[in-house]
Amino acid sequence: MDCETTLDPDDHIYMEPDDFIKKLKVSTAEEVSAKLKVHGQELENVCLNVAITGMTGAGKSTFINALRGLNDDDEESSPTGVTETTMVPTMFPHPKMPNVRIWDLPGIGTPRFKAKQYLKDVKFDTFDFFIILSSDRFKENDLMLAQEIKKKKKNFYFVRSKVDNDIRSERKKKTFNEQQVLYKIREDCRCNLMKLGNPKVFLVSSHELEKYEFQALMTHLEEDLPEKKRFALVQSLPVCSMQILKKKKQYIKKMIWLTAIGSSAIAMTTIPGLAAGCDIGIVMAFFNRIFQAFGLDDKSLHSLSERVNTPVAELKSVMKSCFASGITVEVVRSFFSRFSKVDIAMKVEYVLSSLPLVGALPAGGISLGTIYYLLNKGLIEMENDAIQVLKAAGLEK
Q: What are the alphabetically sorted keywords of the record (predicted)?
């Protein structure tokens, strides 16, 4: 996949349709359609390169696998071990979004990569940001690396990993209090990093992403990234909580009208006749993107099943939409045919009134409004399936 983009970093890709169309400075409906379609394609191809580093034994590989929605023993997973398994920078593409690239960097201070030369050796400019992991106290080399990254004006984040191990160990004590244990870990990290100005440290368990501060970490990453890269980050996240599911939905919803523009290139001759009225490939690709982003595909469900110890059949049994078995031409046709012309006509009128110029297309405007309406309906149905799967997995919080 080509990850280059011509988008200006200041382009507000997620503006409301009418504001964005005005920003394009176009004069005809055809120009609107063409430019918006290009913008949607560029957004989907934006690359995100995430660097994961830290001392040997910090749990880099397990954390990378968790970010990619994989278990340590999955076929595509990053190799794990008690010794240093990464001697050169190794790129692991996200299994569902190849434009999201997670890099396993050599442990800081290993014989081949000393801290002083580290950033040069691993090609610093490749990465959008760095995550520095430690399973105990952050060492001097961790701090030195952070200082160098700061000088070069890129973002870094400290992640205290294996928090579940600490909790499990402390749980044996009669005086155990989970919140006190977490507070003690956080204070130890804070004191350890005071020379860097007391940066934020995120407490994470790679085996239980729904707990502790993984979601807070992802929120900080999202806020710090350029707008055009936020979509890639959010859509790549494993669905481990209702909060992440909601965030994914918000970004997908903002892409629906761009997809509708692309799929309305062929004017509708019937409503809601799918094949005659839109680019079925675009519609299916969009539905499939939602299906995978929400973790409803077989591979995601199997990984979730292993992680929460709930049978796959039990997770699948709660999926009630027509998409439960996957996205096929027959399923999409059947879904579209369920909605009456009256429902669609009402939505079309609203969509066309909010899109200057596009509404001027004689038949494409009707197609646009129809597809926009139906894509939203499909999003809602798959969201409901995902909510039920999270509940069945005990991740409803």
A: GTP-binding, Hydrolase, Membrane, Nucleotide-binding, Transmembrane, Transmembrane helix
